[in-house]
Hints:
The complex is a heterodimer. By secondary structure, chain A is of the alpha/beta class.
Amino acid sequence: MLKFGVPLALAMLLGVFLFVGLQRDPSYVPSPLIGKQAPEFTLPSLQDPNYPVASKELAGKTWVLNVWGTWCAGCRQEHETLMAIARTGVVPLVGLDWKDDRAAAQQWLSTLGNPYAVVASDPEGRVAIDWGVYGAPETFLIGPDGKVLFKHIAPMTMEVWTKEFLPRIQAANAGVAPAGG
Amino acid sequence: MNDMTLPHFSRFARSVFAALLVAFAVPALAIDTERAFDDPALQARYEMIGRELRCPVCQNQTIADSNATLAQDLRREVREMIAAGKTDDEIRTFMVDRYGDFVLYKPRMTPGNYLLWAAPVLLLLLGTFVGLRIIRKQAAQADTDGPEAGQS
Lengths: 181, 152
């Protein structure tokens, strides 16, 4: 009994590990920023390079940072969703236009609509590196205490927004952070 | 008329040959060819760190191997940090703070992976323990039961 039971149990345990491994997305890199203070930045605004966008101005608010670029197909895909989210007015959406052409990005917003309260322009990608960005679109949720609450990598969908973002936004605004992340 | 000069090779064969030439030429194109530093010691450090850091978008390539824009940006960060006099460890910490332990091709020992580092030793001890038990059991059986009590 023991002689067959123990190896069988070990083999099954290994099988469970391998099966779980198969379900995981190897291209997903978990962010070390979750639960930590969000990196500060001051960048020129996309619309007016003379006007600085500073993350400090958002202190005390719950806000969303969306990393995008006109070269990014997923960003085009999520644009309608961002527009819908912006219309609800739950949180300000801050855009980070990453390694992009200023004129092309301005054109994009004027033709497709602008979901952002403000857009920071990061043509050299330095702020994106501080935030550990590796592929647009990426969307961060930042709490009133300036901590990163959540990060979504991939185009935003209404499902992700209602399931992952809204509960955390409500909890953050109520002054309690939800467990896990 | 040209077909007269090369009678044995069809136009198709020549196209294939040309395509092969191009295909085999590709690996010869180095990615990061420009020297970053005049000082050979700094250049050596730059190349070593570049080979140790994984490119987060183009996984299974180091930032020295990859020509993704993010890899170029990360090489620029490494170059600037070396120029600013940062130590290798400070540069590694900079990357880990942003992209996690995942960026290191030589992983660090952290509380989260002690078990992984200890696993080879633990497995060896476990194997020795199990092996000794089996040997002792067989020896004991041989002593007490005699040859005819042959339950295996």
